[in-house]
Amino acid sequence: MSGRFIVLEGIDGAGKTTQARLLADRLGVLLTAEPTPWLGGASPLVRQATPEGSALLFAADRREHLARVILPTLASGRDVVCDRYTPSMLAYQSAAGCGIGWLTGLDVDRVRVPDLVVVLDLDVAVAAARVAARDGQAEVLHCVAEGYQLAERALTAHGWRFVHVDANAPPD
Ligand code: TMP
Questions:
Q1: Do residues 151 and 90 touch, judged by C-beta distance below 8 A?
Q2: Strand partners, 83
Q3: What Å distances lie between residue 148 and 18, 42, 90, 93, 155, CA to CA?
Q4: Chain segment 105-142, per-residue pLDDT in tens
Q5: DSSP string for 111-172
Q6: 3 C-alpha vs ligand 1 centroid, how far in Å?
Q7: Which of 37, 58, 109, 141 has a CA-to-CA distance to 64 between 20 and 30 Å?
Q8: 56-109 pLDDT, tens per residue?
Q9: Mutate which of 88, 131, 137 to test ligand 1's pocket (most atoms within 8 Å of Cβ)?
């Protein structure tokens, strides 16, 4: 029997990585994340690519992640919590200028559909304050938040399930 596949999503500063770790620890399941070390994280390769090129790199990274880590773990019956997945590509690369239909088509018939996508909702202004303190990337957050709305609409039409959690609250 397959394990369950749970994806955590949210704009930068929403506390996604903290919550993914807490959830995986609580459930005693595998915690993994995208982009993976195979791609080199958010590597110079991605940063120097065009929006379409970076989408293709993230999509390739996801295929490798599925083949090497996610699918074998689920097949063994173990649950998987994944910090970022297809919705990140739709949100970030649509914010960078790629068409949402093209992005959806890259993944939707080719990746394992998560049992659940948990979206951490945080006011853009609050996230901007947190992220600005971290790395000065606040100005893109608004576009990414809009990208997440496009992503959810596009993927819900393909049967993906999303739930929203208020990320303004304390981590516990
Ligand atoms: P993080 O390690 O803080 O989650 O950062 C990863 C960065 O990679 C973040 O800015 C979002 C970005 N990203 C994309 O642009 N497209 C994708 O498909 C994925 C998985 C991540």
A1: yes
A2: 8, 33
A3: 19, 19, 7, 10, 10
A4: 999 999 999 999 999 999 998 988 888 777 667 778 99
A5: SPPPSEEEEEE--HHHHHHHHHHHHS-GGGHHHHHHHHHHHHHHHHTTT--EEEEETTS---
A6: 25
A7: 141
A8: 999 999 999 999 999 999 999 999 999 999 999 999 999 999 999 999 999 999
A9: 88
The pTM of the whole model exceeds 0.90: yes
Tokens of residue 111, six digits: 């990746």
118 alpha carbon, distance to own chain's centre: 10
Closest Cα to atom 7 of ligand 1 = 42
Q: Which atom of ligand 1 is nearest to the CA of 83?
A: 4
Instruction: Return the SS3 of 27.
Output: helix
DSSP state of 36: -
